[in-house]
Amino acid sequence: MKVMNLIYDDTKNSSDLLYKARFKAPDPIIFFEIRKKKYLVLNDLEIQRGKKQAKVDEVLSLREISQKIKSSEIVDIIKALIKKFNITKVVVPYSFPSYVFNEIKKSKIKIEAFSSPIFFKSRLIKDSDEINKIKKTMKLTELVLGKIIDKIKSSKARNSFLYLDNKILTSQILRSFCQKELVSLGLECPDCIISSGRSSALPHHEGSGPIKESSPIILDIFPRHIESGYFADITRTVIKGKPSDILRDMFKTVLQGQRIGVKLVKAGRNSKTIHSSIKNFFDKSGFLTDFAKNNPEGFIHSTGHGLGLDIHEPPRVSLLSETLKRNHVITIEPGLYYPKIGGIRIEDTVVVTDEGCRNLSSFPKMFEI
């Protein structure tokens, strides 16, 4: 059986395309792979760039194919390629355009959609170049994180609120500053999280409004390097002012839980073991999780996730059983969230090794600033 792995997409939407072709395409293009040989089909606008930049075996001319079959319809072009290479089966990503899929299927061509959002499983195991790209993104991210914390440090408390340059300091001000600094370093993170107060008790609340003295501030920055496409992910929780005893205990507990998680990471380890160990530690420390309430509280999310060309990739570090493998890149980010108190989360990105893990995050884990 001669199988064609086929993608029709752009690289903004398809990390698998970027991974295989190493070529940025702002508009949908055809990529296919047959017996480990890789092809791109490009128009005249992109073909010369493709021949110089793309890491494929052959670049085909879209114009030449169109002229030969007397059609510029993408379905006809794909059918012509299937016929040219004597393909007996086509496999496409589960996000493949449904119209194109159905039109190919109508032609009695055997075609099936891949069940996983990751079309090429090989990209979950990072090589040294990919790890270095993630590490580079992380180092730049930490520079920005340091600048944000410096701004919070420089703020002054007045009437229970934080002021910077005689203006009330808000989540929006810090997020705007964060995004501008990231862009200046070639990174982008339109949805970074800078939340405080009650918002910090909602893990993915982006944060809004004034920041109060002695209120936890969650800084979760997960930018993509615009050139390489690789993500980093880091979270720190800080407080300006004197924290309550319960907040101080929460921070110490999450910090210790995060250390437990990092220490347990190892190739061959079931990720469920890591998550369960942290959850059990939180329970024994008196910080219980309750999903029965209208607003769930405690440790209400998974411990972590893989990342690379996507911010969320397998494996998950959660209650699901998944085996960690050497050169998986994952996050370890436990947190505790209580609506009447606030939230605490601490996150590092690590590379799984045979002996344990290598931490790509070096930023300090301070609380009171």
Instruction: Please report the distance between the alpha carbons of the first and last residues.
Output: 63 Å
DSSP E strands, number: 21
Give the C-level CATH assignment of the largest domain.
Answer: Alpha Beta
Computed structural class: alpha+beta
Helix fraction?
25-40%
* Largest sheet properties: 6 strands, mixed
Q: Count the helices. How many?
A: 9
The CATH superfamily of the largest domain is identified as Creatinase/methionine aminopeptidase superfamily
Query: What gross morphology would you assign?
Result: elongated
Radius of gyration: 24 Å
Overall mean pLDDT stands at: 97
Tell me the fraction of residues in β-strands, as a range.
15-25%
Low-confidence stretches: none
Give a structural overview.
With 369 residues, this protein is an alpha+beta fold. It has two domains: 3-122, Creatine Amidinohydrolase, Chain A, domain 1; 125-359, Creatinase/methionine aminopeptidase superfamily (Creatine Amidinohydrolase), CATH 3.90.230.10. Helix content is 32%, strand content 23%. The protein is built from nine helices and 21 strands. Strands 4-3-2-1-5-6 form a six-stranded mixed β-sheet, sandwiched between helices. It has a three-stranded antiparallel β-sheet with strand order 7-8-9, covered by helices on one side. The model has no long low-confidence stretch (mean pLDDT 97).
